[in-house]
Amino acid sequence: MKNLYRQEMFKLLKRRGTWWGLGFLVLQNIGFAWLGVVYHTHTLAKEFWVAGFASPAFIVFMMIAACAGSISSEFEYNTMKNVITQAYSRSAVLVSKWLAMLTYSLMLYGLVGGLTFANHIVWPDYRFALTATLPGSQQALWQDWLTATSANFVTLWLLLSVVFLVAAMLKKGLVATLCGIVGYFALGVISRLMFQLIDKWEPLKWNPINFLNYSVQVTMPLLTKLTHLTNTQMFWGNLGYIGLFMLLGLYFFSQKEV
Amino acid sequence: METAALSVRRLTKSFGRKQALHHVSFDCQPGHIVGLIGANGAGKTTIMKAILSLIKAKGDITINGQVSTFRHHAALADVGALIEYPGIYPYLSGRNQMKLFATPTADKNQRIQTIIQELHMAPYIDRRVKGYSLGMRQKMGIALALVNNPSLVILDEPMNGLDPQATKELRELIQKKQASGTTFLISSHILSELQKLAEDLIVIDHGRVVQQTTMRELLARNQHFLSLTTDQDLRAAGILAENGYLVTAHAPVRVQLRSTDTVAAVLKILTTYGVSIEDVQHEDGDFEQSVLDLIRE
Ligand SMILES: Nc1ncnc2c1ncn2[C@@H]1O[C@H](COP(=O)(O)OP(=O)(O)OP(=O)(O)O)[C@@H](O)[C@H]1O
Ligand SMILES: [Mg+2]
Questions:
Q1: Whole-prediction pTM value?
Q2: Where a domain ends, among B188, B219, B250?
Q3: Can you tell me the ipTM of this complex?
Q4: Does residue B1 fall inside a structural domain?
Q5: pLDDT tens-place string over residues B205-218
């Protein structure tokens, strides 16, 4: 298992895309911070900082592509049989891929977190006290940032667990990527309809798409009126669905003939 | 008896309604090179995939005495394989590709270096695999199968895409590994190639083992002929026929040598009758033909 994880990390770190992704995030984060300065909207600077200069949204796309690719590329390159014909079971192979992707997502979040704090130090516009509070918030700015970022991370993995599931079922990276991206945008498109339906029929609030609202709800407490779920329910629901989708992925993958 | 390096029992596999393997059973004895022969679609690759837990199949697989199944295949730690065409990460260099799959022990880099030299891959090993030719990729696949010095190596058509020089080098490498105790299961279409390598043969047809034999036995089945040019061919043919030889042609005289017949005896009879012999040629029947005969039987 340790060896499988080592192999997955080796592949990840030798891929150019991995480093392009990191480089892109650096430029994106600093670039957005600069845009915020240029279009000088001082009132929004704090919100912008709390939101990590929108980097988490870009991380979502990068991670969806990376997770879908980590399975589908093995079929594309015909390397899955090299991976499988080692001493380890298929489940161990999939788990090692999850762990490598978890590591990658933590790397990206760490990078973005570092940059976000660096922006705070470098740009005069963002040099506000991190202990200040936003209107309507009971906690300090840095705590806002931490809450938002953690919730983002959790919902990211809800999406990724679906991407892994689809990639393990279909071997097709493009389909898995599309599922993730559609899932990401579906929220914006169908949420109004979904909220109306939830109002009419309460149990519908437990559907997984509703749980994607978690990351927004932690920064906009009013949203709980629409989702009918508390932040705590959201958190555990996310973890529950992640576990469920991953178990399903494990089941399909362990049946896979190569 | 020694435990077999590989033992396959009643292996049965269907793809949908089509049954690809029917109760395939055979053993590979430790240190032997075993050839798997069969026509296109006979089931060679399917057998190998089932042994390697790549596909689900009914039946029992035992590797070095350890049971191996689709779900639990720890026994594959001591197996190296190349199935169909090599799986390759285009963005890695050949060397990194091997680092990836080499078990991380102290002598890892040494093992990699050795196999690079044995397969003469040094000139391009640090280039990205993306730019490799067909034969280079094939060597890469073989190197991956051998890099951990496994005790059992399974190669599906290993000579695919290799030039005559590389084929010869690979043959010698396989024989060298065999001398140090490695067991090989090799499938090939190129029968003459197997003829030079394999000691044991398993002949597969339509998903069944039709014959399990040794190369020596198969070669013995092979027909030998003696072709003679004499000053009086017709008479010579008559004399030989009268003395119980199987004469198959008259000009020149062609005699089939059975296991008890010797060249010396044939020549002696003719000289006794005063026939003078101008030329003698030994002809071997076709090895491929004898394999085809086996399949047809
Ligand atoms: N994935 C698959 N789906 C359906 N049928 C398959 C599959 N793989 C193999 N078969 C069938 O199983 C039979 C055996 O195929 P296999 O690939 O084992 O043959 P082979 O002996 O390796 O042939 P070749 O010499 O051409 O490589 C063939 O009839 C083939 O059509
Ligand atoms: Mg084949």
A1: 0.85
A2: B219
A3: 0.82
A4: no
A5: 888 888 888 877 77
